[in-house]
Amino acid sequence: MNTLHGEITNIRTEQSISLVKVLAEGQLFHSLVLDAPDSSPWLKEGAPIRVLFKETEVMIALPPVPLSADNATSPLRISVRNQLPCHISAITRGAILCELTLSLTPPSIGSSASRDLSPSSIRSSSSPDTPATIRSIITRAACESLDLKENQAVIALIKTNEVSLAHD
């Protein structure tokens, strides 16, 4: 289970379903919570929270590539809200599955991941020299099809409804 420490930055609730935004390790996560702030005291902006998601729920995509000589790129257009830029720090290959260890890449100021955040809020609870890591488990066929290698830039994709939140 991947676990990252963060802080709730925004909550939008309709009936008893809340869309919660959490800043964890310099990345903005979206989570769907079947609860509302009026019935759950832990569900409030500014509250410390743990972001949890299974390794099997982390998909991998390659960054967009230049389309023309002027270096215009095609953005990754996909419905998955949690798109985390990473670098592959390790690959453990099995006969059927591969486990990828991914180092999170902090968003640059002005990027879509940081547009709702002030520069001072983009921080990591890990050491500045040691980026936070998450893991992904994908099929060996997918790993080989994407020709994934250590130190390669990738985008980790996690569906909103697969991100859980935990409080103390």
Q: What is the CATH first-level class name?
A: Mainly Beta
Structural class: mainly beta
Known CATH architecture: Beta Barrel
- Proportion of β residues? 35-45%
**H/I helix tally:** 1
Low-confidence stretches: 112-124
Number of strands: 10
List the domain count as a whole number. Answer: 1
Characterize the largest beta sheet: strand count, sense, and whether it forms a barrel: 5 strands, antiparallel
Range of helix content? under 10%
Q: What does the radius of gyration come to?
A: 17 Å
What report would you give on this structure?
By secondary structure, the chain is mainly beta. Helices cover 4% and strands 43% of the residues. The protein contains one helix and ten strands; from the N terminus they run ββββββββαββ. The protein has one helix spanning 140-145, and strands spanning 2-14, 17-24, 27-33, 48-53, 59-61, 82-93, 97-104, 133-139, 153-158, 164-166. The strands form two sheets. The chain has a five-stranded antiparallel beta sheet, with no helix packed on it. Strands 5-9-6-7-8 form a five-stranded antiparallel beta sheet. Strand 1 (2-14) and strand 2 form a beta hairpin. The protein is globular.
